[in-house]
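Much of the work behind modern protein science is quiet bookkeeping, done one molecule at a time. The protein below has been through that process, and both of its lines are reproduced in full.
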Amino acid sequence: MPSELKTLYEEQGFVIVPGLIPSSSHEQKLREACDRIVSLTREGKWPHRRTVGKQFPPFGDDNPDSWGVQHVMHPELGEPVFAEWYTSQKLLDVVVELLECGEEDLEMELFNLLINPMGHNFALRWHRDDVSEKASEEEEREALQKWHFGVQWNTALYRDSCLYIVPGSHRTARTPEQRKYSETMEPPSNPLDMPGAVQLTLQPGESVFYNSNILHCATYNCTEKRATLHATMGNVKGGSTRARNILQHGLDWMKEDAFHKELNEKGKAMLNRLIEMKEKNVSVGYSLSG
């Protein structure tokens, strides 16, 4: 029998879980590490970032303002607290429960940081992470049926009300009215105009786990501090189903010895599964445009 958490996740497409950062001191270490890497990014000393004006990869470098920091576990950043948390037991327990797999099946994927831009409000359009906005109803249904081998989550270090979702939309194709709001390249002027949309608010330390092919969008207010840990993890049993969505972010650095040496044994095993998947998928392209 699926657990209550898993049942709710399957019904809604998301669940909010508190308390996955082990202690207040650990949370403070994460905040301090985030402050350091955000400063590096805003000073132009860390090139791997999400650029204001570009919603999806490749993010380019056309705007000096940023709404995210990529690859927070990268050894060149020198912040081991991120890998420590990504492989922490309380977090892995929830991922295993939601994916209904064993720890031996977990595959390392992405770990980035979502931040507030400095000088520009920014927003993401309504989208599913690995389904084209122009997909037909049949194509959409087919894609949604395959998306059960990974989970994405946001963990807020400060109060965060940026994410909007349509509960249950991970299981159904868009209605004609929903298509009207999600086929455009432009972010919505009011996300709640989307039929069925709700705004999620996370308190510090809370995590929202969600199926990344649920209909969702986000708004970024440049006047409100944001540091939200944004990560994904996969189930190796999914084979190559998540390859494009994950590998499009450019993960060659994860094959380097310097990163491997930083990880605990669980992390090394998860990384090895990712590298094996990457070697089988040389050319993947990009999931979305915009």
Remarks:
- Confidence is low (pLDDT under 50) at residues 284-288.
- The radius of gyration is 18 Å.
- The chain has nine helices and eleven strands.
- The longest helix spans residues 24-42.
